[in-house]
Design goal:
single chain; 302 residues; alpha/beta; Rossmann fold; Methionyl-tRNA Fmet Formyltransferase, Chain A, domain 2; seven-stranded mixed β-sheet; six-stranded antiparallel β-sheet; 8 helices; 17 strands
Length: 302
């Protein structure tokens, strides 16, 4: 099938590579424009744009795919289907109705509709998650689902590991969906609205690890936000000590206090303690806790 692909992130780039290796290679890829990123604030293309260029696929970068310039380019490509994956822009009329649009969504819909489905699944302690191929509609991830695949969420897996697994799975599932659509055998099932949950965008305040919460919740937050967003402990001196890997342990430490012995650092929580394993001092790089303790004094929390 002739396709047009709308995507932005690393996740979208992984799915794009799989699509480009199939019989449904996109005739056109659309992404947002280059953005300033990193400490140097250098302009960089979105991962999907970078890959499209590498693969020699026609590329259009636009702040709004619904504007006439974008619509004209999509129409000129004459797609049998448009694919959306981690794109970050709302698709509106007339594009929404003009072409069949498939969306690759990394959750087990109707659970975790919205902007941060992988993060929310990990942070909520879900035991399973997955990928769905759905028909895009005007509602937020509310369209009918054609294919879905589940995976088990390991107790130590962070966002990076889960996203990589789901992206590969999503690419394979998308190709399967397009194969079925080419044979006119792709069928859809409406979502159960009674089972809907929403994956709201991560609020900056959620990055702060509050010891008044259970250690298990804080460990899940660290996993869900690592490495792309990052969780942190706020120190008494109002600095942010990044936490890149941690686990909940059944140890009694006074809530809000920090204890260190034998190269281990523990933060007391309302239930259990958070064992810090990899942390990032302000202005520094991530390092194992034992290395941190050799060159820094024990942090104090407010």
């Amino acid at each position: 099938m002739r396709t047009v692909y709308l995507g932005t992130s690393d996740f979208a780039a992984t799915v794009l590579r799989r699509l480009a290796d199939s019989a449904h290679e996109p005739a056109l890829v659309l992404t947002p424009p280059d953005r300033r990123q990193g400490r140097g604030r250098h302009e960089s293309p979105p991962p999907a744009a970078e890959l499209a260029t590498e693969l020699g696929i026609e590329l259009l970068q636009s702040d709004n795919v619904n504007e006439e310039a974008g619509l004209e380019r999509i129409r000129a490509a004459k797609p049998d289907a448009v694919v959306v994956c981690a794109f970050g822009q709302l698709i509106r009329e007339p594009l929404l109705s003009e072409f069949p649009i498939l969306n690759v969504h990394p959750s087990l819909l109707p659970r975790w509709r919205g902007a941060a489905p992988i993060e929310r699944a990990i942070m909520a302690g879900d035991r399973r998650t997955g990928v769905c191929i759905m028909r895009l509609t005007a509602g937020l991830d509310s369209g009918p689902v054609a294919l879905r695949e589940e995976i088990r969420l390991g107790p130590d897996e962070d966002f990076d590991a889960v996203a990589a697994t789901l992206a590969k799975l999503g690419g394979d599932l998308l190709v399967r969906a397009l194969d079925l659509k080419a044979d006119d055998r792709l069928e859809f099932t409406e979502q159960d609205e009674a089972e809907v949950t929403y994956a709201e965008k991560i609020d900056p305040a959620e990055r702060r690890l509050d010891p008044s919460r259970p250690a298990s919740e804080l460990a899940a937050t660290v996993r869900g936000l690592t490495p792309h967003i990052g969780a942190y402990l706020e120190t008494a001196s109002e600095e942010r000590l990044g936490v890149r890997r941690a686990r909940a342990v059944d140890v009694s430490v006074k809530t809000g206090s920090v204890k260190a012995e034998w190269g281990v650092m523990l933060v007391g929580c309302c239930r259990g303690a958070l064992r810090l394993e990899v942390i990032q001092p302000p202005g520094g790089k991530p390092m194992p806790v034992d290395a941190y303790l050799r060159g820094h004094s024990l942090p104090k929390l407010p």
